[in-house]
Each structure stands twice: as C-alpha cells, then as structure tokens.
C-alpha cells in the first residue's frame, strides 16, 4: 500500500528475480521470432521494410533470446540479482516543505514536484529487507528519503543515513535526530552564530524545528521567547521546553506591541520557521536593536557532511536529559494524508510523523 498525490494505493517490492534465458519455438514463425521493436520478422527486415525505413543499412539479426524446441527446462532459467535495496518503511515524516512539492513549478525548485499517480516521497525511517549492495546488510536501519508506502525499492541507497543509535527511539530520526533537528542545529549554530546572553525569538516554537532551536539557545545561555498557535502549546513551551516566555500569536491583535513587551531591549536573533505573521514585526524589533540587520536563508542539504558530529552531540544531550522532544504520532499508513494536512492548520503538537510499522 502506498500514498500517492491522487490517494490511490498500490504495493511493490524488490530484490532478486527470475529471468527466462530463452524463448520456446512456435509453429508460427512470425510469433516465434517477433522482436521487441515490432519491426523484425524472421530475424531480418524485408526489402520493402528497409525501403520504408529510408533504405540501406545493415540487416539486423533476430534480437530475441535463443530459441529451443519442446518444453522449457530448468537450465533455461537464471537467477538475476540487482544492486537495488528493498526497504520496509517504519516511520514517515510529515514536513511543511512537502506542500510546495504539490505545486507545479515552471522554474525548478530546490526539490522536485510530486508526480501524480506515483507514491509520495519524503523523509522516513526504514529497515533493509533485502540488499543487493555489499556494504548494506539485511536488517540495517537507515533514515532518509523513501516512499509513503509499506515497502520501497531504491537504487541509490547512498543517499540514506545509517542509524547509529538504535537504542534511542527510532522515531527520533524523523525529527530530533533527522532532517528537522539537523536544520535547527545548522540554522542556529552555523547561521545565527549565537552568543551567551543574547535575546532569541522563535516563531512556530512548538514545531519540529522551533522546539529544538529554543532548547539549543537555552543550552547556549540565551534568553528565549517563542510564539505558538494555541494556549496548550504555549504552556508546553514554558513548562516542558524551558522557554522563558511564550505567547499565543492568534490572541495578539498587535504583534509589534507583543514583541516589544517580551523584548523591551530588542531581539538579537529571530529564527523564522513559518514565514507567518511575526516576520515583519520581528524584523522591525531586530532593526531597532542592531541598526544593521542580516537576513539569511539556507538549505540543510549543503551541510549534510556535518551530520555525524550533530548525531553524536544530540544523542548525548538526550541521554543526559538536556533535550526534551515533543512528538505527535499518527498510527498507520492510511492516516498519513490527514496527518500531513493537519500541519497547515496547526493541529499537531510537536513533530508530526506517521508510524507505519513499529519495531
């Protein structure tokens, strides 16, 4: 079963397969020797056919496999193994960027558009069912791009990240230890260049990225305020995630005034994760403080070479109880469309993911 943009469902798998090494002869010479291109009969083109094709050229021999008379024998078959890898999908990540992939772009985006009728592709946690690669073993665990389906066959497993800490919840590799967590770390530490004591504002602060930016900032000794879309999320930010303050932006009629209330001396770092209502007011507050504002975007793919260091550091934070991570887990592949759609109305509390198969 898979989830497609058209919401149809299919199955597929991969691994070794049988291939017929020869065809059996038939009393019908045309049927017996017909070739895939549909133009060859008896192994050679007729004079008329060659003239129709433009004339000249060497005669082509029959391109079909060897022909034998009688019934097939076991020796007519051979086992073929490819270098593809069959994966069982365990957890699927629901991420806001996937909305953009549902739009047809005239100019190519940083990720390709989804193809209607094909399985949706996104980040997930997978277990290898069968490997045709010598450096990948059956049973290995990875995270990376996979299909929204029960099983996925891939030809480029080099794009996957092998899971190092399988003693931690595997679902963390869709968020905390996966792309969203790495995005938070790169964005805050590499792009923002924080200093101890700085004032940090995080929008959509209870989401997959925002909740970690706030906690990374706290570990740096920063003063952190976050915005969220419900009172429940505000309480989680203050009582679970350690933010100094948080507010429900939906209840604020004047966001500029709200930000001045929480940052009377201005904002040093504003981490934007939603491109929402807070962007312009926060930028104004930042400019009051610094007089020189730098706005910078980034693509996390450009920093993947630093992922192993991140994985080690954050896994240690988890073991030491320095990081708390909120997850909102939908059960079953059939729940994936509703889980993804819920992101855009703020229905989720914490990182939204889908448990396809818990192991």
Automatic annotation (TrEMBL):
Residue ranges constituting the Alcohol dehydrogenase-like C-terminal domain according to the UniProt record: 208-281
Q: List the Pfam families.
A: ADH_N_2 (PF16884), ADH_zinc_N (PF00107)
InterPro entries per record: ADH-like_C (IPR013149), ADH_N_2 (IPR041694), GroES-like_sf (IPR011032), MDR_fam (IPR045010), NAD(P)-bd_dom_sf (IPR036291)
Its keywords, alphabetically, are: Oxidoreductase
Q: Which domain of life is it from?
A: Eukaryota
Q: Does the keyword Cell membrane apply?
A: no
Q: GO: which molecular function terms?
A: 2-alkenal reductase [NAD(P)H] activity
* Protein name, as recorded: Uncharacterized protein
Organism name: Spirodela intermedia
């Amino acid at each position: 079963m898979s989830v497609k943009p058209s919401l149809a469902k299919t199955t597929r798998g991969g691994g070794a397969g049988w291939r017929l090494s020869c065809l059996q002869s038939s009393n019908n010479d045309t049927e017996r020797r017909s070739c895939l291109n549909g133009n060859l009969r008896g192994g050679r083109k007729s004079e008329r056919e060659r003239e129709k094709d433009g004339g000249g050229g060497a005669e082509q021999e029959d391109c079909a496999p060897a022909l034998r008379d009688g019934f097939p024998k076991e020796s007519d078959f051979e086992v073929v193994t490819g270098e593809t890898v069959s994966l069982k999908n365990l957890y699927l990540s629901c991420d806001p960027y996937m909305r953009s992939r549902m739009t047809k772009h005239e100019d190519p985006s940083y990720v390709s558009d989804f193809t209607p009728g094909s399985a949706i592709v996104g980040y997930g946690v997978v277990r290898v069912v069968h490997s045709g690669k010598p450096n990948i073993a059956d049973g290995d665990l990875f995270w990376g791009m996979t299909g929204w389906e029960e099983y996925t066959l891939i030809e480029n497993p080099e794009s996957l990240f092998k899971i190092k800490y399988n003693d931690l919840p595997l679902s963390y590799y869709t968020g905390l230890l996966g792309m969203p967590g790495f995005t938070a770390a790169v964005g805050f530490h590499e792009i923002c260049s924080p200093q101890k004591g700085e004032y940090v504002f995080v929008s959509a602060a209870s989401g997959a990225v925002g909740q970690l930016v706030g906690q990374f900032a706290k570990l740096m000794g920063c003063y952190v305020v976050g915005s969220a879309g419900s009172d429940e999320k505000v309480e989680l930010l203050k009582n679970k995630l350690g933010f100094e303050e948080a507010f429900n932006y939906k209840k604020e009629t004047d966001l500029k005034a709200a930000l001045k209330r929480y940052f009377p001396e201005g904002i040093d770092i504003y981490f934007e994760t939603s491109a929402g209502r807070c962007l312009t007011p926060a930028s104004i507050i930042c400019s009051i403080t610094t007089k020189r504002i730098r706005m910078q975007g980034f693509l996390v793919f450009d920093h993947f070479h630093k992922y192993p260091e991140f994985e080690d550091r954050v896994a240690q934070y988890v073991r030491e109880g320095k990081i708390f991570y909120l997850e909102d887990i939908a059960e079953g592949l059939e729940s994936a469309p509703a889980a993804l759609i819920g992101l855009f109305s703020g229905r989720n509390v914490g990182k939204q993911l889908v448990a396809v198969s818990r192991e």
